[in-house]
């Protein structure tokens, strides 16, 4: 396909993805009001104040409730439109991929969804309550919590998305291995560097003491890194089998055969 035709196809797929996001945002706006999504997001915050079950978050501008709901609707819209976006990204890249690369990337999409949901669940049920409890230790009885809804939702979103994204590590390694850019030996040789990076990332995403960091994120990420090495090993093993079982080239006409 000519270069300009590629650009035209890319433009159309981007427009379809934006349209799906717009429709998802409208649907998300309705779902937020119908299923009280905002209440679900704020539940871990209120769980950190067992002595104040009626804790209310404050806002500083009359338009804040609308714009906060709109921002949350956009996030929900992107989530709802994600299958459409993935389809168009895949349809654009699929002609350039080898058959063995397609076989590795398609399962990676499903694995990525499962891992992302697992990371979000860990953040929602464990990381957020522990983080809120950690922050409260600095009040010292001299301050009363008055949480502003915009900044509070920003913190919640950061932790939820952060956990979901870092749990995508095996998917990234699987795709890179399928493309021949990463080997299991390379991953094993960088294990110490990975531990340092995991520790730094955990300290950024989960403020708290060392025990909290270890239980919440460092241990799961370490196991995910080892799982990534296992997936990379499987990919390269299949590559070796495929190359070994590849078609044997026929001798050219007139060549001397063995034993002839």
Gist of the model:
Helices cover 75% and strands 0% of the residues. The protein has 260 residues and is mainly α.
What do you see in this structure?
- The chain has 9 helices and no strands.
- The chain has 2 domains: 1-96, no CATH class; 100-138 and 145-243, no CATH class.
- The protein has 260 residues and is mainly α.
- The radius of gyration is 25 Å and the shape is flat.
- Helix content is 75%, strand content 0%.
Topology order in helix (H) and strand (E) letters: HHHHHHHHH
Q: Quick check: average pLDDT?
A: 80
Task: Label the overall shape.
Answer: flat
Instruction: Report Rg.
Output: 25 Å
The number of domains: 2
Largest sheet: none
The portion of residues forming beta strands comes to under 5%
Oligomer: single chain
Estimated structural class: mainly alpha
Spans of at least 5 consecutive residues whose pLDDT stays below 50 are: 243-251, 255-260
Put simply, the count of helices is: 9
- Share in helix: over 70%
The tally of strands reads 0
Ends: how far apart?
48 Å
Features:
260 residues, mainly alpha, 0% strand
SSE layout:
Layout: H1 3-34, H2 37-47, H3 64-93, H4 99-136, H5 149-166, H6 169-178, H7 184-189, H8 191-205, H9 210-244
Helix pairs in contact: 1-3, 2-4, 4-5, 4-6, 4-9, 6-9, 8-9
């Amino acid at each position: 396909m000519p270069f300009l035709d590629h650009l035209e196809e890319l433009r159309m797929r981007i427009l379809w993805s934006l349209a799906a996001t717009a429709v998802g945002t409208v649907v998300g706006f309705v779902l937020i009001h119908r299923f009280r999504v905002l209440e679900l997001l704020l539940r871990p915050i209120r769980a950190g104040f067992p002595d104040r079950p009626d804790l209310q978050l404050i806002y500083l501008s009359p338009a804040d409730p609308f714009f906060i709901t709109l921002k949350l609707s956009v996030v929900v819209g992107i989530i709802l439109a994600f299958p459409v976006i993935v389809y168009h990204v895949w349809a654009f890249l699929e002609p350039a991929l080898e058959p063995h690369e397609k076989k590795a990337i398609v399962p990676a999409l499903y694995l990525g969804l499962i891992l992302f949901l697992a990371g979000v669940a860990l953040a929602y049920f464990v990381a957020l309550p522990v983080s809120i409890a950690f922050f409260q230790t600095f009040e010292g009885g001299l301050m009363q919590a008055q949480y502003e809804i915009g900044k509070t939702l920003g913190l919640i979103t950061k932790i939820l998305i952060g956990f979901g994204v870092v749990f995508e590590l095996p998917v990234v390694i699987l795709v890179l291995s399928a493309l021949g850019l990463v080997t299991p030996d390379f991953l094993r040789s960088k294990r110490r560097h990975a531990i340092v990076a995991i520790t730094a990332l955990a300290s950024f995403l989960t403020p708290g003491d060392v025990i909290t960091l270890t239980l919440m994120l460092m241990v799961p990420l370490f196991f995910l890194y080892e799982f990534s090495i296992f997936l990379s090993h499987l990919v390269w093993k299949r590559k070796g089998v495929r190359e070994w079982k590849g078609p044997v080239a026929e001798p050219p006409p007139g060549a001397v055969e063995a034993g002839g």
